[in-house]
């Protein structure tokens, strides 16, 4: 699903770099003001911003379950921007949008969705709030 999501983005005119190097990820984060765990390997650079992809394997996955997977990506420092590939999902996109609107995820800056029809939709998020604690940035050595 990661490959097909990259193909959909590219076909719609987005600049996509799949499996960017750690140096490319670090450069992008510096240039955009994003943060993240340097030990993680996000899936893409989309328009020079770091994104990771989440594709539910269960076509009936609950909205809250998708939201939780995105939340985990932000919490562990994988990325602050997520592409959710819903090509095989049968759920309600408006309910998913409502979940993100009603339950802000600290540290999350952007969510894009690929619908089952191949449309790319930007999910409106509440105003950005940084994480209070970034465990992957703390130095406990």
TrEMBL record:
Pfam family membership, one: CdiA_C
Annotated CDD domains: CDI_toxin_Bp1026b-like
GO function terms (MF aspect): tRNA-specific ribonuclease activity
tRNA nuclease CdiA C-terminal domain residues: 40-120
Matching Gene3D superfamilies: 3.40.1350.120
InterPro entries the UniProt entry points to: CDI_toxin_Bp1026b-like, CdiA_C
Bias kind Basic and acidic residues: ranges: 24-33
Stretches for region Disordered: 12-41
Identification of the protein by name: tRNA nuclease CdiA C-terminal domain-containing protein
């Amino acid at each position: 699903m990661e490959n097909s999501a990259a193909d959909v983005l590219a076909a719609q005119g987005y600049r996509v770099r799949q499996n960017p190097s750690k140096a490319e990820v670090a450069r992008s984060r510096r240039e955009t003001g994003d943060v993240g765990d340097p030990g993680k390997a996000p899936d893409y650079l989309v328009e020079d911003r770091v994104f990771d992809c989440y594709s539910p394997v269960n076509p009936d996955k609950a909205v809250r379950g998708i939201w939780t997977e995105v939340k985990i990506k932000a919490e562990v420092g994988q990325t602050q921007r997520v592409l959710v590939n819903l090509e095989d999902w049968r759920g309600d996109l408006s309910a998913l949008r409502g979940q993100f609107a009603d339950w802000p995820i600290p540290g999350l800056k952007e969510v894009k969705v690929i619908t089952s029809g191949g449309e790319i939709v930007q999910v409106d998020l509440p105003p950005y709030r940084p994480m209070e604690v970034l465990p992957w940035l703390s130095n406990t050595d």
